[in-house]
Design goal:
This protein has no helices and 11 strands. With 129 residues, it is mainly β. Strands 2, 4, 5, 6, 9, 10 and 11 form a 7-stranded mixed sheet that branches. A 4-stranded antiparallel sheet has the order 1-3-8-7, with no helix packed on it.
């Protein structure tokens, strides 16, 4: 079992910065890939940024150059540094912990008890114009 908890977020004016943190605790062998997703009101949850346990990163086009994801691998803790925030970034941000090595890998090759992803409860980020 893996427990995921986010912290940070809040309200900021456009152009400002915020940092989100996420800790995944529990069965660490079921946590390799971690990332951030967000869900704006009335919209679907979408990918924001991800990082592997070897430090490889990827970003959604909408946040490239403004957001930075980092990871403290020993503690399965990740951060999302958000700069140049825009009103369009307003959303609930969710942390995701995944047992796969990278996106696109199959869950089926993993130990049975690791064949799923885990989500945090979400952190609100509000950017005003």
């Amino acid at each position: 079992q893996v427990h995921v908890v986010e912290s940070g977020g809040g309200s900021v004016q456009a152009g400002g910065s915020l940092r989100l943190s996420c800790v995944a605790s529990g069965d660490s062998i079921c946590v390799r890939l971690m990332g951030w997703y967000r869900q704006a009101p009335g919209k679907e949850r979408v990918f924001v940024a991800g990082i592997t346990n070897t430090g490889g990163t990827r970003y959604a086009d909408s946040v490239k150059g403004r957001f930075t994801i980092s990871r403290d691998g020993d503690k399965n803790t990740i951060y999302l540094q958000m700069s140049g925030l825009e009103p369009e970034d307003t959303a609930v941000y969710y942390c995701n912990a995944d047992p796969r090595q990278d996106y696109g890998d199959s869950y089926n090759l993993l130990p049975y008890h690791c064949q799923r992803e885990y989500w945090g409860q979400g952190a609100q980020v509000t950017v005003s114009s």
